[in-house]
């Protein structure tokens, strides 16, 4: 049986980081957004950081959605724009992506979106309290397509157990990938988590709130598949 609330020691032994460090060129516009907007929209995270107070952060009570690994932020900004009654927290470690999303926040005047530039596992452990989230989005995480690298994939049992513990009863976890092998692994891992239940027979239809990215459109034209998985936290 998978632990529903793994201890910090157990997670440390099976640690999967939510990112891989890589270089990235920052444009002048992204750097300007970082310089001018980060103090307002990027939240700090350190060993001393307290658990996130969503009401204080956003100035209101509203559904709280976490996105892990937003890349350059286009889909994140699109979702936040079309769902103004929800609060969104995006986690991304790469500086160009953070700058790009800050630029979109400014362009769309988004008040319902905040960013943390840190490893998602540590953010969730330190800042997200149990049963506090209404939804979690993980769209197109690194597939680590070589078999010997599958152990580096984000969607693995200990991490999914941690995510499930942060969802409210009835809240959802939505993953999407364009790698069939990873989709199959996701389905196996999510289905094995006792706190979660599948909202579909296996893979779900793409929910209307998730936009189709340019990369995804190109892949679909080439005949590549995309798999969405939407699981729900069981009632206690």
UniProtKB/TrEMBL annotation:
One Pfam family of this chain: Methyltransf_4
Keyword tRNA processing: yes
One annotated Gene Ontology cellular component of this protein: tRNA methyltransferase complex
Reactions this protein catalyses: guanosine(46) in tRNA + S-adenosyl-L-methionine = N(7)-methylguanosine(46) in tRNA + S-adenosyl-L-homocysteine
Assigned EC number: 2.1.1.33
EC top class, as a word: transferase
Molecular functions per Gene Ontology: tRNA (guanine(46)-N7)-methyltransferase activity
Protein name from the UniProt record: tRNA (guanine-N(7)-)-methyltransferase
Species name: Mycoavidus cysteinexigens
């Amino acid at each position: 049986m998978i632990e529903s609330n793994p201890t910090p020691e157990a997670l440390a032994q099976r640690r999967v980081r939510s990112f891989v460090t890589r270089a990235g060129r920052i444009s002048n516009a992204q750097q300007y957004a970082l310089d001018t907007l980060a103090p307002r929209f990027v939240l700090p995270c350190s060993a001393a950081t307290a658990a996130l107070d969503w009401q204080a952060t956003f100035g209101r009570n509203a559904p709280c959605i976490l996105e892990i690994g937003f890349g350059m932020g286009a889909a994140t900004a699109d979702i936040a724009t079309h769902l103004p009654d929800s609060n969104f927290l995006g986690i991304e470690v790469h500086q160009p992506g953070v700058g790009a999303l800050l630029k979109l926040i400014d362009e769309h005047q988004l008040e319902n979106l905040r960013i943390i530039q840190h490893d998602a596992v540590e953010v969730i452990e330190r800042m997200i309290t149990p049963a506090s989230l209404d939804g979690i989005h993980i769209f197109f995480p690194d597939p680590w397509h070589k078999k010997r690298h599958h152990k580096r994939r984000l969607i693995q049992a200990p991490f999914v157990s941690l995510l499930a513990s942060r969802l409210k009863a009835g809240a959802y976890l939505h993953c999407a990938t364009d790698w069939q092998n990873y989709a199959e692994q996701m389905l196996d891992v999510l289905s094995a988590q006792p706190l979660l239940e599948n909202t579909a027979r296996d893979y779900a239809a793409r929910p209307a709130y998730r936009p189709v990215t340019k990369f995804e459109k190109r892949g679909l034209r080439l005949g590549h598949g995309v798999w969405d998985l939407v699981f729900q936290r069981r009632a206690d």
